[in-house]
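S.,

Sequence below, as promised.
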Amino acid sequence: MNIRVSWANFLFKNGIANNIIFSGGAVYTKYSEAKIMAEYGKALGIPETAIFLDTNEEHSTENVYYSCLIAKKQG
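The prediction came back faster than expected:
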């Protein structure tokens, strides 16, 4: 997760991404990966208004699918 959040932060800080979708459910523990990554992202300075969460997935295919739905909804 640390690498994914660091990469998201790099993309945001360099103007490559205007918003970040953190995706991941509570598959291996009781904690949602997306929510944990969002907290790390906020600590690095990504504004909460630029963070979107997708917390219901159980595998990578669902991560991509539901993240695409969020991105389309946000334009």
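The chain is about 50% helix and 10% strand.

Coffee later?
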